[in-house]
Amino acid sequence: MESPENGGRGPRRARGRPRGWDDKTEQNTIKSLDRAMEVFEFLSEAQGKALTAIAGEMGQSPATVYRILVTLEGRGLVEFDAEEQLWHIGPRAFVIGARFLRRTSLVERARPVLRRLMEATGETANLGVGRDASVLFLSQVETEASIRAFFPPGTLSPMHASGIGKALLAHMDEDRLARVLKVAVLTAFTDHTLTDAEALRQDLGVIRTRGYSIDNEEKNAGMRCIAAPIFDMHGEVTAGLSVSGPTSRIGLDQVAPLSGHVLAAAHDLTAAIGGVTPPRN
Fold first, then answer.
1. Does residue 161 contact residue 177 with C-beta atoms inside 8 Å?
2. CA angle at residue 85 from 81 to 87, to 5 degrees?
3. Number of domains comprising the chain
4. Which of 72, 85, 137, 258 could pair with 155 as two cysteines, CB 3.0-4.6 Å apart?
5. Do 122 and 229 reside in the same domain of the chain?
6. At 19, which CATH number?
7. Distance between CA atoms of 259 and 130, rounded to whole angstroms?
8. What pTM, to 2 d.p., does this model score?
9. 18-65 pLDDT tens trace
């Protein structure tokens, strides 16, 4: 379609993308940048690593990894502890991550909901979204109890062993669920972890029916979590919230009463972002 705004010269290219932007071949990939991002992501998941450890575990040469780290250090994305001879994620990474969180009102609108949920239950309240086959934790309001769960913003946790993760999986359409499970590695973290795909699917069916999920010591022994999904304006699952704490406080007899608070909080947050909660199956 010709546009009068470009003098009838044919369709305009989308601003911000060059011609052929949909070409995914190697000519559109900066290999050195891609390698640098691999090192950056590796360090973000394994903080406090020596150069030789990073290079060895990634299968890269120490000289290459060192050049990457020094470059990232210059941007404040990583930092070097000269005394311990270890590399860590730098403060600039937090600044960039905080800018990502400001893209959406979800985190801002979730804070008062999480605060009320923590006060009502006495347990730590969490907010997370899906990233591939993991949950990315975006926000948390901690309980004042001495023993508590801790998932700082930016933490990634496998979906199959997470209360929020299973709440998300349970409310995905079948095509999306199949794609996630195809790439998921069902690692066993405890004796309670669901590592069989069929057993996991059966649990997801139960979750869809009752509306909330339970992480019953599936990621960490002695910790229990109750989670519920948050939906967008199209009634599609977009995030999840939860309460988590030690099994000494969240006993099985506490799951039912706590789940009521979790479901109410999820409903409130869904409404706060203009979402629609679909009827349960």
1. no
2. 60
3. 2
4. 137
5. yes
6. 1.10.10.10
7. 21
8. 0.68
9. 565 555 555 566 888 989 999 998 988 777 899 999 999 999 999 999
